[in-house]
Amino acid sequence: MSTITTTSSSSIIRCCEDTIGRRQRVLAFDDTRFPEKNLVLTPASVEVNKPPRPRRIILVRHGQSEGNVDEGAYTRVADPRIRLTEKGGREAEQCGLRIREMIEKDGADDWKVYFYVSPYQRTIETLRGLGTAFQRSRIAGVREEPRLREQDFGNFQDQEQMKIQKAVRVQYGRFFYRFPNGESAADVYDRITGFRETLRTDIDIGRFQPPGEQSPNMNLVIVSHGLTLRVFLMRWYKWTVEQFERLNNMANGNMIVMQTGQGGRYSLLVHHTKQQMMDFGLTEEMLVDQEWQKTAKPGELNYESLTAGPSFFTHFDDEINGRLG
Fold it and tell me: 3-class DSSP state for residue 221?
């Protein structure tokens, strides 16, 4: 087992010997730089010490890119280096203004924003456009997150082959079809699952603000790509593959807002109307669940429904039809 020796200024961690008898290197760190490691989590203190949840998680699709107006751009420029158009830059700035206006309507004085961003050029440029709407004091931080990158369609793309592959994807199914030398939406789901766990941990420990300065008026902004954001929502709300395949891309430079309801959970129907969510692709069953999310508390489960998607147990329908026949 590892042994920990504590001094007045730092903690020394000595790891076990490796399998061939060599002593592992010694790591030292300053406790004062990682205050969350000093939290004593007893049953009585967990709720007291737990930081407030951010008020919103705002999903932003990058502004119009060179690839959005000319798919041939992907044959000349690597996907991660595709830039925004002038229109895309304006869309990003306008989206930032809409986010600030939405937050200011809360009437709070201590609000801030924290950004997670895909490392692609068009999302970084979108982040910079969004940032023009905020003073330095309002930006709590930024984290570049590679797991938020676009679905990988392969390296330099052959335009004619991509048309063929996208047509085949429609026949095969948008979620499971994997592009040659690239990814399927199911692959994106796997990496977004890892990001979601990181995000939940960041929320639980209040990583966005120092201890003593934590506020419920924090707003998280995730700057990413159309499919990646749809997969994020699918993973967060546990939507089925069939439900995912009904969803539509949000427009460039637009946002979808997950906002805390009365109980503290995130719902799409706190900020958006039912019609807006139906246009995005939510079914009636999904809307019912979002209504429940508006008042439910974190950790609660919706026991009123076996599933938020299509029935997996068709024999129940047969029983009902038999009684009605």
Answer: strand
pLDDT over 90 at 17, yes or no: no
Question: Which residues does residue 257 pair with via DSSP β-bridges, in sequence order?
Answer: 58
Beta strands at 3-6 and 11-14: parallel, antiparallel or unpaired: antiparallel
Q: Is 271 a catalytic residue?
A: no
pLDDT at 61 over 90: yes
Query: What's the rounded Cα separation, in Å, for the pair 113 and 314?
Result: 46
Per-residue pLDDT of 188-228, as tens digits, reads: 999 999 999 999 999 999 999 888 888 999 999 999 999 99
Q: Which residues pair with 3 in a beta bridge?
A: 14
> Closest by alpha carbon to 222, among 325, 107, 126, 105?
126
235 is in an annotated binding site: no
Q: Is residue 65 a known part of a binding site?
A: yes
Q: What is the pLDDT of residue 37?
A: 53
Candidate list 150, 183, 225, 272, residue with the active-site label: 150
Strands (E), 158-281: 218-224, 255-260, 266-267
62 is catalytic: yes
pLDDT at residue 303, rounded to an integer: 81
The mean pLDDT of 265-279, rounded to a whole number, is 98
Distance in angstroms (rounded) separating the CA atoms of residues 126 and 253: 8
Q: Identify residue 285 by its one-letter amino acid code.
A: E
| Residue reference for tokens 């499919």 | 227
321 is in an annotated binding site: no
Residue 13: the pLDDT is 40
Residues 6+ apart with CB under 8 A from 303: none
